[in-house]
TrEMBL record:
Domain TLC positions: 1-175
Organism: Certhia familiaris
GO process annotations (BP): membrane assembly; phospholipid homeostasis; plasma membrane organization; regulation of membrane lipid distribution
Spans through the membrane: 53-72, 78-94, 114-136, 148-169
Protein's cellular compartments: Membrane
Keywords assigned: Membrane, Transmembrane, Transmembrane helix
PROSITE patterns reported in the protein's UniProt record: TLC
Membrane topology field: Multi-pass membrane protein
Keyword Flavoprotein among record annotations: no
One family name in Pfam for this protein: TRAM_LAG1_CLN8
Major localization listed first in the record, in broad terms: membrane
The encoding gene: Tlcd2
A GO-annotated cellular component: plasma membrane
Stated name of the protein: TLCD2 protein
Length: 175
């Protein structure tokens, strides 16, 4: 059920990210909303606000945008593209686990740092750039309120991801 497979198996998504979605895609996006809600509540309960405000903000934007797709049964294809970003989360989370285990000076950490940066560029930065471009090119086909939510969402997510990329570079490569 990974998003790249969806686009390979359902090439019509590349033509219509608004009204077209393959079987199970709506459920995938709905489950993702549930995950982000659960993670949001967990962070509120178990972390200090000054440590988690960026992720809480990120999760709020995702919950709103994905929630619209789930409720309207539209933009599910666009949400699938957005889920490509989460492929990089595997390596971001592994990085955190390795940091907590004090394994920073290991080959595993170094290898993960390289894969993390590579997947960050491909699945976060390039995907967000593509989504921003798609939104701009299709603005005439998107209702103004939805276009506004999408534009604001992209305007929030893109700088957040660039800042995080800079922090990762500084932390893992330019100490």
């Amino acid at each position: 059920n990974l998003s790249p497979c969806r686009f390979y198996l359902h090439p019509e998504l590349s033509n219509d990210l608004v009204g077209t979605h393959p079987p199970g895609a709506h459920s995938l996006v709905a489950v993702s909303v549930g995950y982000f809600l659960e993670d949001f509540v967990d962070m509120l309960c178990n972390q200090k606000l000054h440590q988690s405000w960026e992720l809480l903000f990120h999760h709020s934007v995702v919950i709103i945008c994905f929630g619209i797709a789930v409720l309207l049964h539209q933009y599910v294809g666009f949400a699938l593209v957005a889920l490509l970003v989460e492929i990089n989360s595997i390596f971001l989370h592994l990085r955190q686990i390795l940091l907590m285990a004090n394994l920073v000076h290991t080959t595993c950490y170094r290898l993960n740092s390289l894969v993390n940066l590579g997947t960050y560029v491909v699945f976060r930065i390039a995907t967000l750039a593509w989504m921003t471009r798609w939104l701009f090119l299709n603005r005439q086909n998107v209702p103004p309120a939805t276009y506004a939510v999408g534009t604001v969402g992209m305007a929030i997510m893109t700088p957040m991801n660039i800042i995080l990329f800079y922090r990762l570079l500084r932390s893992d490569f330019f100490k």
